[in-house]
Amino acid sequence: MMCFTSGNSYSWEKVPVPDSVDKKTKSPWNFSEDFENQEEGRLRTNKFLINDKGAGLKPFLIKEDPDGNKYLAVTVKHGWNHDPKKKRGEETERAEFQTRPKRAVGKEMWISFKTRLPQDFTHIDDRVLFFQFKNQFEQMGRSPLLGLRYYKNGNRLQIGGDTGGNPRKSMSREERYVHHIGTKYKNKGGNWIVRWEKDRREGKIRDEDDFKLTTNEPVSVTPLGEWSTYKIGIYNTKNDDGFVKVYKDNQLMFDYKGVTFDWRGRYKGSYIRIGIYRDSGKQFGIEYPDQTIHFDDFIVVSDEKTLDQILNR
What we know:
Elements: E1 13-14, E2 31-33, E3 41-42, E4 49-51, E5 60-64, E6 70-76, E7 92-98, E8 107-116, E9 128-137, E10 146-151, E11 156-162, E12 164-165, H1 173-179, E13 180-188, E14 191-198, E15 219-220, E16 227-236, E17 243-248, E18 251-257, E19 262-263, E20 267-279, E21 291-301, H2 304-311
Parallel strand pairs: 12-19
Antiparallel strand pairs: 1-2, 2-21, 3-5, 4-7, 5-6, 6-21, 7-20, 8-16, 8-21, 9-10, 9-20, 10-11, 11-13, 13-14, 14-15, 16-17, 17-18
Protein name: Possible Herpesvirus UL6 like
C-alpha cells in the first residue's frame, strides 16, 4: 500500500534512526516492506526468513488487488505445514514470514502491519495465531512475549504472552501467575469487548474499575475482506520500565507496563513473525479447512514518532 523508493528489485527499505533516539535502546531492525516491487506469484524472501515446517515457499504468495496494491497471502492447509517435531496429539500447522533473529534485550521496537481476512475466510474453533514477538531460547517451550490469536470460531481475540521463566520446563501454575500477561476480547455485536485480563502483579481481574491492561472500550471487529492496521510498541527489558502496547486501527487494546524479559537459560535472539500458526485438526481426528490471511506494510522502527510518520504518509 505504501510507496517507497527502492534501488533494487525488492520492496524492503531501511528506515533511518533519528538522532533523538538513544542508540543503546534502538531497535535491531529498522525497515519497511510493502511488497510492491515483488512480482506476482512466489515470494522472494530477501532479508527475511520463513517458518514453513517443510512446505517451502508454497504457502507464501504475492498477490495484487484490482487497484494495483500488492500484498502477501499466507496459507495453511491440513497436513501441509505440520511440525514434524510435535508429538501425536500436539500437532500444529504453520506458515510464518519473519525477521532474522537478532539480540533485542534492552531494545525498544515499534512495529506495524496490515492484515485482512479474505471474504471466503473460514474461522475454526481453535487457536489461530497471526502475529508474534518472541524471545528465543534453546529448547524453547513457552509462549512469545506477545502473540495475537483468534479462538472460538473467530469470536475471541487473545492478546499477550509470557515475560519470563525457565524456557525448558512447562509453566507451573505459580510461574504462570508471575510471568503471564494477557487479555481476552469477545466479539459482541461487531465489537471486541474485554472479557478477562491479567498481568504479572495481579490475578484475574473482574471488576471494571480495576482493569490494568486495557481502556475497557469497545473496538470494532474488522469485517471479512477489509484491511485493519496493528501498531505495536515493545520495550524488551529486565527492568520495570518495560512495556507492551497494542493498537488496532488507532485504538489501544493492550497496555502492559513492567518487566518484559525475565528469562533463565541461553538466549538465542528475538524475532518478529506475521503469518499463521494454528493447532492441527489431527489432534482431534478431524480436518480443519484451508486458511489464508493477507498481510501488507510490515514495518519495524525504533520509535513511535517515526512509525506514526510512516503510517500517516
